[in-house]
């Protein structure tokens, strides 16, 4: 996979400006002869150079100030050269800011002020290089070659090997744009040889070689050059350059399937960049991380990370740097069946891909027409230098080249024009075929793509005059199969499955709807009538699929939907697969009632967030009794929402929806902040109790949320508990454990909620850094009448104490149960027999009225233990 990388031309230009000797090559008078305002010009230009790489806007501001100072003293000697220097730097800054159209007249102005036949100075050659860079950025490759050639001749004449090396790297970048990576490689290698031992130049060349070898598929060579570039950036003390090169390295590792190595590389880039990371580079690091998460199957993480890449970015105006990130975003949203979010990225990808192909075609055309090869020219010059006639041969070589170009231009002009017309027409036809194939054929399996399915559904429905049924086939254990087989073989497996479906069902089209879902179109209007055909598909996988001599057991779950719209059919059929899995069925017809109205769901989520801000959402607290001491030392925070339109909205209605839509993170952070504020109020009232907040399972493995929650909770004046479910921690144990240990180390008490309600694991219970075990109410409600429940409660209490945990019983609804719990050694009790959830003012009153509660263990509670 081709990812964004640090461009060669931009880095070469930076190195040209970063030369340590540059300050003495501005051709200004000696320092002791300068007037005070000229020294100011010098300082402004020095500041401009210092900021050119990290902050071109700041550099441009310094250059504008120098320009104004020069205008005030336009009658001084040497002013033309100084203006040329200022305008040259201004054009560099504008080009780096992505404004090449503005930069061109400024650079040309700098060139014109030097006269019709400028002296062969470094400033003259630097301006030519700037013009060449502008020409390259605007795809005028012929003009770029011409300016680079002229600059190269000047640098050769004045013996500036460092600048020669930079020009060679710029020319190599043109071959890179033309996808002639071997030629680009030769220029980058020659550039290092031309001026050896310069860390900046070696860094640029190694980075560019890494990019070239990646495109050539040479993983080890590319990795070695990126590592060397990173070492040089570290020696130079530049964390920003290290982060950029590490991003290139991570992109390489992703492209070759080294996902763990890529994740470590991106994490390292984040860790070393710190505050020095610019927003642009932070975006690209998040984009690379999103691709890693996608390839691992962590779609929700990938969605959050790719959103950070495009946050605040207009999708219709993105540059080539974002091409593969658009592809990644489209893959992620398609896998999540978020078609409306995937389509803009597909369009942006197509726009940028078209532009890139135009650039490559333009570069190749210019390379075909140009009659200039620096590597060969310099080899000949070096050979002639050995016989002591360098200067004469350089002049003769220049004249011979001019004559050759003039004669060649006359001879091949007509041929070139005809060739250009033919190449453009052929490229246009080829591009159309490639785009059509890419749009309607899955590149990995060769099966029809989702877009082809959507088009076929519309066509068949229009032809038949009635809806058609799409059967979506979700491949079970897909992530496990992908990890076991690898990317290439999982594609072969899907192709083999499609062939078996075609053979058994007699259908022509079996397509890929998403990475883990195949699809079959059946021209029947009633989806329920297609269930027998779906059953035949399921049965055809009763025997293993043989791949490279290995038998692979596969199974599918079917989702069916009948309609006339392609996008609706695909979306609803895939949702039906999930609905079938939820009910442990092998197939399901899409149930619109179960799915709900997406518009209403989104509206409800919008109102939920508004409710947290306007006071409609409030926090109530259910006290927890400490049985040994008879005092209320803790309370659990429970949200209560009274909507102006819907009335009371119960948590069971909006919490799962908030988790599904991604709003749970903002809501949970609000909950923690509210609890911290309420705890301050409680402490002021004289009640120092611990407050517990429920943390959604979807957030436990999120490192960003973990950090935000930690900072918010530790701002509070007292003890805070986080209640998490054991099953949530099991979903991604490594990340969950890391976050839980971070919370525990900061003093946040951790409670395992609803213990016993799911598939509890003693191994995870031993591993989790918890302090409290909350037994699910199902074991407490009937314990007074059920000996089995009493045995389970007692054994769980003993287990908790054996592991050094306290145990809380939830759902205590009778005084008899309360007495039994104390008798069994339970530490805490919570339930309606003690108190219901109440607003904060009522909690303060409750705590003052119930400073001491006596709970007898002889099943005869004291009067003070009566329900309140």
Structure, briefly:
The protein has 868 residues and is an alpha/beta fold. The protein has an 8-stranded mixed beta barrel, surrounded by 5 helices. The chain has a 5-stranded mixed sheet with strand order 2-3-1-6-7, sandwiched between helices.
Explain how this protein is built.
This protein is an alpha/beta fold. The chain is built from 35 helices and 16 strands. Strands 8-9-11-12-13-14-15-16 form an eight-stranded mixed beta barrel, surrounded by five helices. It has a five-stranded mixed β-sheet with strand order 2-3-1-6-7, with helices on both faces. The chain has a two-stranded antiparallel ribbon with strand order 4-5. Helix 8 (161-177) packs parallel to helix 10 (199-215). The chain is globular, with a radius of gyration of 35 Å. The two termini are 65 Å apart. Residues 1-38, 275-279, 368-393 and 860-868 have low confidence and may be disordered.
Biggest pleated sheet: 8 strands, mixed, barrel
**Helix content bin:** 55-70%
Q: What is the distance, rounded to the nearest whole angstrom, between the alpha carbons of the first and last residues?
A: 65 Å
Uncertain residue segments: 1-38, 275-279, 368-393, 860-868
Write the topology of this structure.
Elements: H1 8-17, H2 36-51, H3 56-72, H4 79-96, H5 100-113, H6 122-137, H7 141-158, H8 161-177, H9 181-194, H10 199-215, H11 219-235, H12 239-255, H13 259-273, H14 279-296, H15 299-309, H16 323-335, H17 339-369, H18 374-385, H19 390-440, H20 450-464, E1 468-475, H21 478-485, H22 487-505, E2 510-514, E3 517-522, H23 531-539, E4 545-547, E5 550-552, E6 556-563, H24 566-582, E7 587-589, H25 592-595, H26 598-614, E8 617-626, E9 631-643, E10 647-649, H27 651-661, H28 664-684, E11 690-694, H29 703-713, E12 720-725, H30 726-731, H31 733-745, E13 749-755, H32 762-767, E14 772-775, H33 787-802, E15 806-809, H34 815-823, E16 828-829, H35 840-849
Parallel strand pairs: 6-7, 9-11, 11-12, 12-13, 13-14, 14-15, 15-16
Antiparallel strand pairs: 1-3, 1-6, 2-3, 4-5, 8-9, 8-16, 9-10
Helix pairs in contact: 1-8, 1-10, 2-3, 3-4, 4-5, 4-6, 5-6, 6-7, 6-8, 7-8, 8-9, 8-10, 9-10, 10-11, 10-12, 11-12, 12-13, 12-14, 13-14, 14-15, 14-16, 15-16, 16-17, 17-19, 18-19, 20-24, 21-22, 26-27, 28-29, 29-31
């Amino acid at each position: 996979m081709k990812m964004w990388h640090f461009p060669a031309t931009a880095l070469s230009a930076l190195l040209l400006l970063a030369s340590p000797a540059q300050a003495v090559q501005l051709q200004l008078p000696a320092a002791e002869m300068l007037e005070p305002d000229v020294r100011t010009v010098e300082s402004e230009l020095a500041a401009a150079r210092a900021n050119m790489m990290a902050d071109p806007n700041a550099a441009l501001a310094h250059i504008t100030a120098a320009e104004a100072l020069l205008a005030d003293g336009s009658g001084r000697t040497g002013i033309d050269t100084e203006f040329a220097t200022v305008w040259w730097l201004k054009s560099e800054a504008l080009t780096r800011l992505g404004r090449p159209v503005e930069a061109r007249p400024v650079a040309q102005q700098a060139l014109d002020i030097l006269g019709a036949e400028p002296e062969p100075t470094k400033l003259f050659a630097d301006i030519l290089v700037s013009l060449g860079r502008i020409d390259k950025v605007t795809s005028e490759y012929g003009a770029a070659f011409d300016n680079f050639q002229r600059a190269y001749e000047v640098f050769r004449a004045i013996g500036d090997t460092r600048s020669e090396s930079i020009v060679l790297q710029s020319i190599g970048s043109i071959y890179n744009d033309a996808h002639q990576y071997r030629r680009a490689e030769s220029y980058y290698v020659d550039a290092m040889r031309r001026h050896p031992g310069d860390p900046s130049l070696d860094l640029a060349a190694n980075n560019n070689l890494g990019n070239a070898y990646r495109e050539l598929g040479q993983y080890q060579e590319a990795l070695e050059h990126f590592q060397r570039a990173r070492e040089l950036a570290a020696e130079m003390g530049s964390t920003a350059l290290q982060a950029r090169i590490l991003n290139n390295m991570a992109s390489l590792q992703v492209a070759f399937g080294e996902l763990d190595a890529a994740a470590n590389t991106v994490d390292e880039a984040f860790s070393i960049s710190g505050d020095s990371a610019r927003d642009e580079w932070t975006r690209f690091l998040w984009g690379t991380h999103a691709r890693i998460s996608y390839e691992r199957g962590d779609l929700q993480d990938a969605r959050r990370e790719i959103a950070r890449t495009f946050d605040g970015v207009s999708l219709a105006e993105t540059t080539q740097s974002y091409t593969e990130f658009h592809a990644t975003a489209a893959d992620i949203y398609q896998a999540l069946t978020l078609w409306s979010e995937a389509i803009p990225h597909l369009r942006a990808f197509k726009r940028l891909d078209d532009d890139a192909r135009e650039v490559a075609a333009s570069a190749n055309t210019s390379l075909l027409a140009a009659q200039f090869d620096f590597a060969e020219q310099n080899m000949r010059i070096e050979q002639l230098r050995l016989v002591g006639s360098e200067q004469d041969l350089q002049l003769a070589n220049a004249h011979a080249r001019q004559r050759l170009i003039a004669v060649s231009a006359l001879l091949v002009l007509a041929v070139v024009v005809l060739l250009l017309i033919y190449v453009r027409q052929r490229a246009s036809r080829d591009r159309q075929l490639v785009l059509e194939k890419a749009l309607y054929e899955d590149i990995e399996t060769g099966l029809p793509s989702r877009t082809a399915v959507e088009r076929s559904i519309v066509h068949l429905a229009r032809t038949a005059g009635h809806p058609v049924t799409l059967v979506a086939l979700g491949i079970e254990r897909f992530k496990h199969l992908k990890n076991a087989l690898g990317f290439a073989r999982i594609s072969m497996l899907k192709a083999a499955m499609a062939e078996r479906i075609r053979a058994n069902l007699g259908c022509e089209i079996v397509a890929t709807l998403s990475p883990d879902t195949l699809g079959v179109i059946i021209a029947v209007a009633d989806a329920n009538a297609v269930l027998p055909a779906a059953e035949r598909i399921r049965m055809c996988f009763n025997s293993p699929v043989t791949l490279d001599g290995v038998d692979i057991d596969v199974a599918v779950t079917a989702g069916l939907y009948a309609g006339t719209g392609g996008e609706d059919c695909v979306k609803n059929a895939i949702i039906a697969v999930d609905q079938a899995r939820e009910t442990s069925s092998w197939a399901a017809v899409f149930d619109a009632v179960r799915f709900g109205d997406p518009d209403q769901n989104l509206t409800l989520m919008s109102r939920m967030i508004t409710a947290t801000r306007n006071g409609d959402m409030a926090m109530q607290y259910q006290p927890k009794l400490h049985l040994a001491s008879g005092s209320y030392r803790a309370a659990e925070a429970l949200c209560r929402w009274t909507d102006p339109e819907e009335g009371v909205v119960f948590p069971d209605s909006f919490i799962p929806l908030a988790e599904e839509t991604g709003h749970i993170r903002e809501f949970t952070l609000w909950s923690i902040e509210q609890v911290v504020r309420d705890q301050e109020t409680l402490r002021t009232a004289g009640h120092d109790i611990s407050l517990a907040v429920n943390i959604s399972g979807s957030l436990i493995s999120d490192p960003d949320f973990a950090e935000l929650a930690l900072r918010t909770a530790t701002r509070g004046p007292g003890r805070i508990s986080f209640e998490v479910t054991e099953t949530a921690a099991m979903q991604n144990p490594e990340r969950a454990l890391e976050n839980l240990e971070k919370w525990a180390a900061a003093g946040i008490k951790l409670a395992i909620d609803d213990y016993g309600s799911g598939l509890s694991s003693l191994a995870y219970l031993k591993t989790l850094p918890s302090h409290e075990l909350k037994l699910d109410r199902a074991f407490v409600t009937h314990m007074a009448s059920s000996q089995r429940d009493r045995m389970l409660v007692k054994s769980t209490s003993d287990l908790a104490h054996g592991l050094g945990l306290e145990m809380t019983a939830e759902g205590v609804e009778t005084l008899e149960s309360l007495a039994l719990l104390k008798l069994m050694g339970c530490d805490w009790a919570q339930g309606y027999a003690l108190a219901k959830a109440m607003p904060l003012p009522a909690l303060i009153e409750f705590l003052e009225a119930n400073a001491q509660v006596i709970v007898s263990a002889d099943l005869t509670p004291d009067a003070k233990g009566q329900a309140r």
